[in-house]
Amino acid sequence: MSGSKSLDLYIGNSLEVVSANPSQTVISFTYRNSSDNGSQVKFKTRNNHLGLNYKFKTKKSKDVSRVFSALGPRGVSVETGKVEKKKTGLKSKDMAGIASLMVNTEVKEYVPEQPKVENSGGTSSGAGSAAGGRKKKGKKKGKKR
């Protein structure tokens, strides 16, 4: 059993175990709400066939979010170790998500849609406002006739 102190180390080790033997790897998490110490989440990655167990526990919601992102199809970006930084010169590397290993398909990158601009029927002469070239009519205040 190995209790990881680094979140990036836990994510990397879990990804390697799942990629080596996905059918017999179990990833579990336990949430405990304690009024004394605050809430705590424990993550466990276990593969009895390979004899590997990895644990990570945290009280930070940001760490929980990163682990769930690593479980998803898009993955996360993790910091490289000192030796790897010297070899490659990269400070971080992108890791594929664990779900993408199980699905065995390529995940498309999310591209947000651009809002479509509608042209208001006529051509604008450039002298009018940007919203179609028409001036807004003001409301008449006073008595109705």
UniProtKB/TrEMBL annotation:
Instruction: State the protein's name.
Output: SRP9 domain-containing protein
Q: Which InterPro entries match?
A: SRP9_dom
- The chain positions of domain SRP9 read 5-77
Q: Which GO cellular component terms, listed alphabetically, does the Swiss-Prot or TrEMBL entry include? A: signal recognition particle, endoplasmic reticulum targeting
Give the Basic residues compositional bias ranges.
133-145
What single Pfam family name could you report for this chain, choosing any that match?
A: SRP9-21
* GO biological process, any: SRP-dependent cotranslational protein targeting to membrane
Question: Which portions of the sequence form the region Disordered?
Answer: 110-145
